[in-house]
Design a protein that fits this description.
Elements lengths: L19 H10 L1 H10 L7 E5 L7 H8 L4 E6 L2 H13 L6 E5 L12 E7 L7 H14 E12 L5 E3 L3 H10 L4 H5 L6 H7 L3 E13 L4 H19 L5 H12 L1 H5 L5 E12 L4
Parallel strand pairs: 1-2, 1-4, 2-3, 4-5
Antiparallel strand pairs: 5-8, 6-8, 7-8
C-alpha cells in the first residue's frame, strides 16, 4: 500500500493520498471546480498569500495569476519532498509573481504575526486531529494581517459515492474506519466554520461544491477514480467488516474498471470552502 509506486503513497510526513502523481491527477480530474473554488476566496491582485499545506503546488499557477506581478506566495508543507517538487515547478515555469518555499508545520507556523494578507489551505486539514486543527486555525489567524482572509478548503467524504454501487457499502467502511485521523478529518469539512468562529474569525461563511463525474469519463477522471477505488479496497482489508463486504471490496480492488465502465456509473465528491476575516484591532 505504501510503496513508492503506489499512487497514494505516504509522504515522509506520513500522509496518505499525498504522493505527487495522485495530487496532479486529483487536481486535473476536478480542475474546473477546483479553480472555481480558489477564485471564490476573493484573493486579490497584489496580496501576499500563504499556501499552507501546499502539497506539490497544484494551486500555485492559478493563484499566481490571481495575484499578479505585485503579489507574493509562500508555499509551506511538512514534507521536504513536496517542497522540492514546488521548487522544481518554480524553476521550470515563469510565474507572474514571486513564490518562496518553506518546510513547516501548520500547527506551529514559522512566520511572524501579521505577515500575510491571506492564508489558503486545501485538503490539508484532514490530516489533523480536532485539537491540531484548532491550533492550525489559530496560527492562520496569527500570521494574517488584521482585516485579512483565512480560507480553508476541505472535503466531506460522508457523501463519497460510486454509483451504481450501493452507498451503504461505503458508509459501513467509513464507520469501520472512524478511529482513523485522516478519515475522521475528511468528514469534517462541513463543520469547519465552527473552528473558525472558535478562533475568533469574523464574517465566517462557507461555500459547498458537489463535483460529479459520469460516463463518458476523460482519461484523467478515470485514473483518479480508479486510484480511489483501489485505495479504498486496500483500506477495507484492514477493517472489521462482514464477509460479504470484504468480498465486494476485494472484487472492486481487483477489477475497478468493471464498476467504472457501467453506463450508469456516477462518481460524487463534495467539499466546503470555509472563509473568515481576521478582526481589525
Amino acid at each position: 500500500m505504501n510503496n513508492a509506486s503506489s499512487p497514494e503513497r505516504v509522504t515522509s510526513a506520513g500522509h496518505r493520498l499525498s504522493g505527487g502523481r495522485h495530487l496532479d491527477v486529483h487536481y486535473l480530474a476536478l480542475k474546473d471546480e477546483y479553480d472555481a473554488t480558489l477564485r471564490a476566496t476573493g484573493i486579490r491582485p497584489g496580496w501576499s498569500v500563504l499556501d499552507a499545506g501546499a502539497g506539490n503546488g497544484v494551486f500555485l499557477p492559478l493563484m499566481a495569476d490571481l495575484l499578479g506581478s505585485q503579489g507574493h506566495i509562500e508555499a509551506l508543507d511538512l514534507a521536504p519532498e513536496n517542497i522540492e517538487a514546488i521548487e522544481s515547478l518554480i524553476a521550470d515555469q515563469q510565474f507572474p509573481c514571486p513564490i518562496s518555499t518553506r518546510t513547516g508545520d501548520m500547527t506551529a507556523l514559522p512566520q511572524e504575526a501579521g505577515t500575510f494578507d491571506a492564508v489558503w489551505s486545501a485538503n490539508a486539514s484532514q490530516y489533523l486531529s480536532d485539537e491540531q486543527l484548532a491550533r492550525a486555525i489559530e496560527e492562520f489567524r496569527r500570521v494574517v494581517k488584521p482585516g485579512g482572509l483565512v480560507a480553508v478548503k476541505e472535503v466531506d467524504i460522508s457523501v463519497w459515492q460510486y454509483q451504481p454501487q450501493d452507498p451503504r457499502l461505503m458508509w459501513r467502511l467509513l464507520d469501520a474506519l472512524s478511529g482513523d485521523t485522516q478519515i475522521s478529518g475528511a468528514m469534517r469539512g462541513t463543520r469547519l466554520p465552527a473552528w473558525f468562529r472558535a478562533a475568533g474569525l469574523e464574517r465566517v461563511s462557507a461555500i459547498t461544491t458537489l463535483a460529479e463525474r459520469r460516463q463518458p469519463l476523460k482519461p484523467v477522471e478515470h485514473e483518479y477514480i480508479r486510484n480511489n477505488l483501489e485505495f479504498l479496497s486496500r483500506l477495507a482489508r484492514t477493517c472489521d467488516l462482514s464477509e460479504a463486504d470484504h468480498d465486494q471490496w476485494k472484487a472492486i480492488g481487483e477489477e475497478p474498471d468493471r464498476l467504472i465502465s457501467d453506463p450508469d456509473f456516477c462518481y460524487r465528491e463534495m467539499w466546503v470552502l470555509s472563509l473568515g476575516i481576521v478582526p481589525k484591532r
